[in-house]
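Course assignment 3, question 2. Fill in each field.
Student: A.L.
Task: Predict the tertiary structure for the chain below.
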Amino acid sequence: MKKMMTCLLAMLGLTACGQENFENVDVAGFEKLTNEPNVTVLDVRSAAEYAEGHIDGAILINQGQSDFMEKAKKELSKAQKIAVYCRSGRRSASAAGRLAAEGFQCVNLRGGIVAWKEAGKPVTTDSYEVDVFKTKSGKTVKFHALVHASIRMEYDGKEIEIDPVTKLGNRTINYAAMPKADYLFVTHEHGDHFDKGAIKLLTGGKTRLVMNKRCAEMYGAGEAMSNGQCITMDDIKVEAVPAYNYSEGRTQFHPQGRDNGYILTVDGLRIYVAGDTEDIPEMAALKDIDIAFLPCNQPYTMTTEQLVKAAKMVKPKVLFPYHYGQTDVTALPAQLKGEGIDVRIRHYE
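Answer field:
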């Protein structure tokens, strides 16, 4: 009976004394929170509602699904304040109560996104999955899962694009609607990574374009980096690292020494974008990787078994399998259970 009462109180967002265990704020207070460091904005509605319009940068975890708390514990940090909202404030109040009962510090938007819109505050219909991280000094880094190997990053007001491609299969990315890139990286020359049209759409007067040597020659512009080279662009350190095939019968796809992977260090946050590669021995030398994007499609990059080996070498805190095409990657979280790696499956087909 006591356990049932505790669960009921948590769902209602109440303590044993009948007091809410989280804070309610109005639109002005919530907007202020969204601009503060060490705050995660959480949308607890359905995916359909989220796609219709959401607060920019909000991550989505549907509180109506049975695995809500499991996902929340995996994707949220108790070191950060959680700013929660839904449509009208009721579902988010329930979610905030449940999270607070597990030790999260939560703030609920009174009136939900309805009140937010009525106050004239902006929403976005960007349907791409967004993952939000904080750097060591509390700056925000957002990753947008575009398609296959195409990644959009936002960091401290800067736009970063990696291997932008306009069309792949039935999926089309409208780069004309996106801001010009401050930094644009290309790993190698294959058409699912190197798209001259996408590069032109994203290039502005201040864009720094970084490629491997072959792509710089083909495009006729850009800074060429070779494996082992490092450059610093403003406060971003860039390392070009090897990416290649070594298995018999595959070496023609990505010969050793031609293509790049990149490690971007932004305010202490180390991000490894592997490019097209197998589980090469050089990965064992990579240190302190916070976020890794590792490819997984046969026969061009890694098998799932190779990706597991690569993840154990690199030891990232968060792993995004990407470039996986028709390869089934859904078993990877279970295969890496116990390794201390948060595996996140996003739409990088």
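Instructor remarks: The first strand starts at residue 23 and ends at 25. The chain has ten helices and 21 strands.
Grade: pending
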